[in-house]
From TrEMBL:
Keywords: Membrane, Transmembrane, Transmembrane helix. This is Uncharacterized protein. The chain crosses the membrane at residues 6-26. It comes from Paenibacillus sacheonensis.
Length: 178
């Protein structure tokens, strides 16, 4: 019996294309689209782009000015629990308008916030927010916390800066999303 290589190669290529195509279609229809629908229907979310990795689910979000970051995280984590499962949920917030003033405020309070996070003295974070508001007129600073993250919102008359800090501090010592 003579083995012909062309039919074998064609069969392997077609099988691989069907398997990869089926996996891609399943991933889009069963995971990404429902998670995108959950995120975009969450109050305060303008746009969302989910990325599902092996150990984490990352959502690139664009939020409106009045979004409550803790509620956004909680809604997505609760309603998307079937998709997220045991993976870590990470939010990357895209700022629609960059503000140098808000970046300066964040930089000035970063040491106090980092120290509070490292020492797990979370009650010091609202104090840092109040100090920032008194030191920089026209800035609204607020913080909230749940069992997984600390959420910080800085606002001025034109822009908003959202920061999500995981309560389990990173070993590097810097937050990648700050």
């Amino acid at each position: 019996m003579k083995i012909r290589p062309l039919p074998i190669v064609l069969t392997a290529v077609i099988t691989a294309a069907l398997l990869v195509g089926g996996w891609f279609l399943y991933r889009n229809e069963a995971d990404l689209k429902p998670l995108d629908r959950i995120a975009t229907s969450t109050p305060g979310v303008i746009d969302a782009k989910p990325v599902i990795g092996r150990s984490s689910v990352t959502l690139d979000l664009t939020l409106n000015r009045d979004a409550n970051l803790r509620n956004v995280y909680d809604t997505i984590a609760t309603e998307g629990d079937d998709i997220i499962g045991s993976k870590e949920l990470k939010l990357n917030i895209t700022e629609s308008e960059a503000s140098g003033k808000l970046e300066d405020v964040w930089a000035s309070m970063l040491f106090e916030v980092a120290q509070a996070m490292d020492h797990r003295s979370y009650a010091d974070i609202p104090k840092a927010m109040q100090e920032a508001q008194s030191k920089y007129p026209g800035i609204q600073a607020s913080s909230e916390m749940d069992d997984t993250n600390v959420y910080i919102t800085l606002k001025d008359d034109k822009a908003v800066k959202y920061v999500v800090l995981p309560r389990a501090s990173n070993t590097i010592g810097v937050w990648p999303n700050a």
